[in-house]
Amino acid sequence: MQRFPLLPAALVSLALSVSSAHAAEPPQAWLASWTASPQAVWRTDFLFPSNVPAVLQAQTVRQVARLSVGGPRVRIVLSNAYGKAPLRIGAATVALAASGSAIQPGSVRTLTFSGQPAASVAPGAPLVSDPVELSVPDLARLTVSIHLPQASPVSTFHWDGRETAWIAPHDQTQAARIDDGPGVQATTARLLLTAIQVEATAAGQAVAILGDSITDGASASLGMDARWPDFLAERLAPHGVAVVNAGISGGRLLSDGMGDNALARFERDVLAQPGVRTVIVLLGINDISWPGTAFAPREKRPTLEELTNGYAQLVAQARSRGVRVIAATLTPFAGALPGTPLSNYYQLDKDALRQQLNAWIRASGLFDAVLDFDALARDPAHPLRLLPDYDSGDHLHPGDAGNRALAEGIDLSLLFTNQSPRPAYKAVLR
């Protein structure tokens, strides 16, 4: 039998002291604190404009994102999910946001990738930056600036960012602001940036929300963090629980729409996000209502069985990763989108299918919990319609007040377990 030499007593003592010191400190981990799900840029003949240039070259993209929980270090994730060629990043920075495109003095940090200030994002892949020391508080707004030195076709984006972004000439990643010079373009789409992660304790957790335009924030006030996941983030931050928004406008459960179907993107947009322990699913209204409209004129509407089977597959994927699933019932939409090319989005037979799906969500017992958004958002006098105070005006999407009501109507104890309130993370700029 092979014998190994005994360690000297001094080394044993040192090893034990180091082990004890590490044991006294909670282990650290990365936590998703903000996300924007990637979409493929659509063709110019699509019903909605993409609002992004076809090519970026020798330009800087600057965008602002509000985190949910803070931490002492951050890192970003870029995406080339739908690109066909490597995407060259010349430089990138992160900073605490001021107003507009401005950053707070002294807060800019240069990002590196595997120790280098420049990098390439492989086709179809993400790119994770190295961690950077930047102490950020809960609900902080961060500014991320990315310089693209070479001709870069824009193939991956997030269409409805609910925030203004700026595209400026040259490398302005270190600039105090970039919206006041010549040649600057503005867009409300997200480009390249798909996630921001913070360093947290291993006990940190996130709630992901898989949804469509109601979750993505269509009709929420621009630049005001007024989507219902934003209001939920404000409620959960004191508990150390992050909220990541995996909504895509035009998103569907079973079929591709203005993004990949939910079953196809669930792994990337939810299960792969660090710290996700619970997912809320609010999906299905576009599956029900797109067929027969200008979006999908020749498409057949799914059956109730097809929809429920889709939900069951999401649950199976989530449970295999130890993630809890909470389903939200579909909100009323009578009279939706009047005076638009989608004025036939609502029909009585479509609403009948919505109500059948809602009844199944409530009674199936498949989910860890159910949020009855239908009951919360409907007008008691006209149950097929949104409550007027919650209606953005298009009779489909809640406005700011409706978004707040959805978030405030959630029993937080359903969203996490063994998580007591903690003091809000307060950053100190160093």
What this model shows, in words?
By secondary structure, the protein is of the alpha+beta class. It is 21% helix and 28% strand. The chain has helices at 9-24, 213-216, 228-236, 262-271, 285-289, 304-319, 348-363, 373-377, 400-408, and strands at residues 28-35, 39-40, 55-56, 59-66, 71-79, 87-89, 91-96, 109-110, 119-121, 126-128, 132-136, 141-148, 152-153, 156-158, 165-169, 185-187, 190-191, 193-201, 205-211, 241-247, 276-282, 324-328, 369-371, 378-379, 382-386. The strands form 7 sheets. Strands 8-7-12-4-15-16 form a 6-stranded antiparallel β-sheet, with no helix packed on it. It is globular and about 55 Å long. The N and C termini lie far apart (56 Å). Mean pLDDT is 92; it is low at 1-25. InterPro entries: GDSL_Rv0518-like (IPR053140), SGNH_hydro (IPR013830), SGNH_hydro_sf (IPR036514). One of its GO terms (molecular function) is hydrolase activity. It comes from Janthinobacterium rivuli.
Number of helices, counting only DSSP H or I runs of 4 residues or more: 9
Q: Any idea of the CATH topology of the largest domain?
A: Rossmann fold
CATH architecture of the largest domain: 3-Layer(aba) Sandwich
- Shape designation: globular
* Low-confidence region ranges: 1-25
Span of the ends, CA to CA? 56 Å
Helix percentage range: 10-25%
Number of strands: 25
SSE-based structural type:
alpha+beta
Total count of domains: 2
CA-based gyration radius? 23 Å
CATH homologous superfamily title of the largest domain: SGNH hydrolase
Placed side by side, the strands forming the largest sheet appear as: 8-7-12-4-15-16
* Largest sheet properties: 6 strands, antiparallel
Main CATH class of the largest domain:
Alpha Beta
Proportion of residues in β-strands: 25-35%
Organism: Janthinobacterium rivuli
InterPro entries: GDSL_Rv0518-like, SGNH_hydro, SGNH_hydro_sf
Domain SGNH hydrolase-type esterase: 209-405
Protein name: SGNH/GDSL hydrolase family protein
